[in-house]
């Protein structure tokens, strides 16, 4: 066996300095040579090392080879061997919702739970072009920032004795922040996934998102012109549009719409087939699952077999809860529009600190500006969402298989999980457990894993 580490994502800055000093030829900094060498593996008898050396020494030829293999022959998977890291700053939380829809990518985002947020917001160009609206929006942001600070101080005052009072206060005060608040993200993504992301975002209804797509494309093209090419916008007829007011505040937090018929029987039948047994009874299935989990640790991955059982949920979440939910990349997450009819989520600490009416008044102000925008530009309903707060809600269809649900439960039923997504996870796991009590028996948070297992 020969395993050689030939590349890793190190920062470009020192390499650029070496190029400036003339120590390295700049063209060699492209990850295209690795993609080109790997592309040739399938049809060459030469060693990979030789293919890489040839590609590295003649990047122009490597680019031609990529273009032929990726674009003419359609082997787009070659582009997955080139990986980018991007710093992204000054982008609204609303735009980040669109960026982070790409499943095959990694994100780390500044948390509004751990960091006190200043008056950093994005004023959408669409609003700047309507006379007087920029001023209206700026006033709204100022008043929401004030409410945010008021909530923070009031919650800190009311939970002063609690451990991590500041964190608790930031966690809930943020419900008053608008979706135009800017964030920062570290993004890691391969060239193929980047191309898909750029195409999807280029078709967005928000000019901020379209602009972000172009910036990502420009930066990627500097080093990989041969791997990112089809970046024209794709139409978005299957996307939800902006903001509506059609829902009712009576909508349940979670409904289970459907699940795999006879899911446990399907697991048992497949297991019997895989292991060459005549049959696996429900009791044996239960026993096997317990035998897998009980001696294990909370970090144990659920077996792939569990992917055979699916659940589709209809959930009602605030924008801040959605921001967390959307990070579960393996799930199918279809977000509906923000819906003023659903009302806003009120964090219990806000009510206990006696500032619920200030919070609700701020949310009403935000809705007023959003409705004004819809009056000016009904064809640009998506833009109205910039005015809304983290407390505004939407409905989301979530499809997860049992394996994903296990992972979700470990993180989101855990004591460190934020309270709203924890309630969501409790409801989702409770409904799933009612359907398939044996297969779902070990859905629990990381912190309770030991107790959970010893109770069985
Ligand atoms: C308490 C808490 C605090 C958090 N704080 C922050 C924060 O401050 N900032 C922030 O940005 N995020 C934060 N997160 C979100 C967190 O980083 C994850 O993005 C989120 O929980 C989704 O889970 P996941 O990444 O494990 O996997 P999912 O996307 O749910 O995927 C499921 C599993 O698939 C595998 N997988 C998926 N994609 C990849 C991949 N590209 N490479 C390798 N394996 C993969 C992994 O095994 C993963 O566990 C927080 C989460 C929690 C629970």
Q: What would you note in describing this structure?
A:
- By secondary structure, the protein is of the alpha+beta class.
- Helix content is 47%, strand content 13%.
- It is built from 19 helices and eight strands.
- It has a five-stranded mixed β-sheet with strand order 4-7-8-6-5. It has a three-stranded antiparallel β-sheet with strand order 1-3-2.
- α7 (133-158) runs antiparallel to α8.
- The longest helix is centred in the first third of the chain and has 26 residues, at 133-158.
- The protein is globular.
- The chain starts with 11 loop residues before the first helix and ends with a helix.
- The mean pLDDT is 94.
- Flavin-adenine dinucleotide binds at residues 106-109, 111, 114, 327-330, 407, 411, 416-417.
